[in-house]
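Example 3.2
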Amino acid sequence: MKFLRFFTVALTLLAALAGIGLAAEKDRGKGFIKTTPIPSIRGKVNEVKAGAGIIIVSVFEKGKLTSNTKTIKVGELTKLYYKKAPGQLDMGVLRAKITDFKPGDTVIVTSKSVEGSTVDAIDVWEIKAFLAYTGSISVEKEIKGNVDSVSKNDKTLTVTDITDKKQYSFVLDKAGQVFIDGMEGSLGEIKKGTNVYVRGRWRGFEEDKPALIPAFEIKDAKTYVIHAMRDEFGPVIAHGKALSIDMASKTIKVGEDKGAAKSVTFDGSTKWVFGTAKVKSPADLQGAVIYVFGNSAREKQEKANQVVNETALPALFDYLAKSGGKVGGQRAVLAFGELVGVNSSNITVMAAGGKKITCKLHEGAMFVKSGKKVKRTDISPGEWVKVEGFLSQRMEDSIAVIVISFGRTPANLKKDIK
């Protein structure tokens, strides 16, 4: 009967929001639930006369508030529901008095008849109470950050978000999934101090956030980046050690886990993420472990859309976390030449032929010099740099995320950039 009561209320009030009235009742002889029309209205409270047991509302019609008013009579058998505090989600704690209602509240009213200017109410629901009780509204959080603690036995973990620096506590939902190294795993494989992505959701509003947020999906940093790249550039068509990268034939030979070598083609549209100052061109990735994302082909050879050095995955996780989880463009070498200037928002490089290239600088951009991560102020004009980032149709809208310095511009290259 409790389920039937919930079903009746939820169906009736959802229908009221849509402008229809429904009730549900059980056919005792046939054992199924059938629906029958029940009058209901949605309105905005203008005045509450508690002593007289009256609420005066302006009525919504076809989703729009009108000047049409009705007087709602609240009797001894009328059930009132109002959300007065965070965490109130169940019918018992939502029960209210007429004095809880105030002008400006949106309400849903059921009655035997809503014709005429006066309505004898069966139920009166304040809108937030209705949405919270029926589960018609929920909050979903996507957290990307560092694991502070994890308990395999309690199925809980706490994470400090990279962006807002706040700590969030989660409990793995019964239907929750954990992914490690791109495969389904367990919570016990998540380690303290590592980066993770967690998707949690709770019933109600932001104010109803529980102490432990139910987690429905947990991914380690590697899996999160792989999935983000996969969604942008296509599935992983090869993963393993780059045995050879032939720039003439535009072919990559990858030694996969099972021992077999796989050949993949690339072209001028292929994007490369080098991830280290030691790698200055695609050919330098030979010997490194790489991920190749692209389009699989049944007959022709598969083509790479994106090639990522596995060592770049941690930096990519940090970038994706700060950019809201969006790839935002295609990673490419934006500029290669002598640094003209760099500030907190832009970077300008003099490329070969004397062409100046200016693009935006991401707030979380990484700077590398002599193979080590440094500050922006440690790189000076006159140094030879490579700028990697996300390419837009206009270069000035492209976003630099990695700047690698090779020191002062070599003398033999000075003439090439004049």
